[in-house]
Amino acid sequence: MKRSEDEQLTDEIIGEAALSLLNSASAINTRALIARLEAMLISEQTPRRRRVLQNVIAEIEGNLSRSLAEKTEKEARSGAAETKQPNAKNVH
Predict the structure, then answer these.
(1) Which of 51, 63, 41, 58 is nearest to 6 (CA)?
(2) Over the stretch 52-81, which tens digit does the pLDDT of each residue have?
(3) What pTM value is reported for the model?
(4) Tell me, which fold does domain 5-72 have in CATH?
(5) Residue 42: its pLDDT value, please?
(6) Domain ranges of the chain
(7) In sequence order, which residues have a C-beta less than 8 Å from that of residue 21 and are 6 or more positions away?
(8) What is the mean pLDDT of residues 81-92?
(9) What 3 state SS string does 34-72 have?
(10) Are the CB atoms for 52 and 10 separated by under 8 Å?
(11) What's the whole-number average pLDDT of the chain?
């Protein structure tokens, strides 16, 4: 299947941001990537690249939010399960 030009540009932009982080010896994590993409957006002049940058940032932020929500939900379920199980130390 042939990838769209926007998908190819998306990969290119993410690659540029990642390489920029690597070259600057910055932290490599999602928040750093978002910050670098936002910096790229500020200086970008091309309307198409600006649009793709905005979409990439929104997608990554959305993925990050979903991941954090899932982690919080999983931790909450795990904590609830632990409170239902009797503590062996309290059994006489």
Answers:
(1) 51
(2) 999 999 999 999 888 888 888 887 888 766
(3) 0.74
(4) 1.20.5
(5) 97
(6) 5-72
(7) 27, 28, 32, 33, 36
(8) 58
(9) HHHHHHHHHHCCCHHHHHHHHHHHHHHHHHHHHHHHHHH
(10) yes
(11) 87
Structure-block tokens of residue 29? 């994590």
Place of tokens 């006489």: 92
Residue 53 corresponds to which tokens in the numbers above? 């940058």
The pair of three-digit structure tokens given for residue 2, joined into one six-digit string: 């042939």
- Tokens at 11, concatenated: 């990969």
Amino acid identity for residue 57 in this structure: I
Q: Which two tokens stand for residue 50?
A: 């600006």
Contact between 17 and 36 (Cβ < 8 Å): yes
Does the pLDDT at position 84 exceed 80?
A: no
Q: Are 27 and 21 within 8 A, CB to CB? A: yes
Question: What length is written for the chain?
Answer: 92
